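Protocol step 4 of 6: structure prediction from sequence.
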Amino acid sequence: MDWFFKSKSELPAVTHLQQKRTQQIDSLKTYNHNVAEIKRDEEYRVSFTVSGHTVALNITLPPKFPEDKPIVKVSPPLRHPWVSKHMLVTGCRSLNNFVVNSVLGRVIRDIVTEFEKAPPVVFAESTNQPPSHMPALPYPQPQGMPAFPQSMPPPYGQPSTVAGNVGMYPMPGHTMPPVNGSSMYPTTSNTQGNDVSLGAHNFQVQTEFPELQNKSIDELKILMEDEEKLLNMVLYSEQMERLKDERNRLNESCEELSKTNMSYKPELESRKEKLKEAYNKMLEARNSFDMKCLHQQSINEQLSPEIILYNLKVSVADADTESEELAESYLDNKMETDEFLKSFMDSRIKVHLRKVKEDKLHQMLTERGGVSF
């Protein structure tokens, strides 16, 4: 019955540093939203959304906090002037100058505000860029294409190596020599005075330029020297007229096609707006999903067997302290006997029930190799 006459609780007194630590943690929850407790009094997470990405600030409190400044790490990997290559926040002045009288919640809020004003560049999980040790090609080379055409004829004046084309290609401005004493080009004859007989080429001249059919060589020479007349003959020929008609037809076709395309503009703009709305809804759903995942993760961490065992130990100590206070009040004649017996028995029952649960959970964790306190 020694516990019946105890005057003070055996729990250690709360120090001034511990009070400051608790106040700093409360300020973190006051100034910021979505605060998740990862490890009680040691590690917390603040989540927010920037440019469609969910960013988390992981705050680690050292053992001597708030005398020592907290450590703030960012996830996922990103690039920002305030963040080092190890994803630690190093550019925040209020964090670097953190002292005992600083407000942790306000410091974290400054970091979140800076990220909202100057959004960081969030790195993707995978990129399609080539590795850094591979230099880029100076000129793109299509795959499946040889460096040079294999069937390209040799330059002018060079012998051909293609089968069936043995010989010399003519240089510009030169003619090929006759083969076997005969010319490779059709010859002209004056068997009918000044009339031109072009053999097989006569049909082509008659078809394209019928006005040249009955002209003599002298008339053709004069026509060749009169560039203006020759140009007018070409410009007003049937072939040119057909080209003009074809050009006009193509212009009209292009205009009709452009009008048809412009008629699709309202529908295209409407679908573009629908796509934008669907994309915004997707971003909202994704952000909501990410926040719920973080919330679920924080709840799972808070309801872990180790945390429950720790809370049971604290509740047993609190219930024991409550029963001791009732006993002291009764000994000081501050309570009636009936009231004391009822309150004291309820308090001791609560202590024993919590103690049994604590021992049972401790035994289960020990059997499965869990962490014990």
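Step 5 (inspection) to follow. Confidence is low (pLDDT under 50) at residues 1-9, 125-206.
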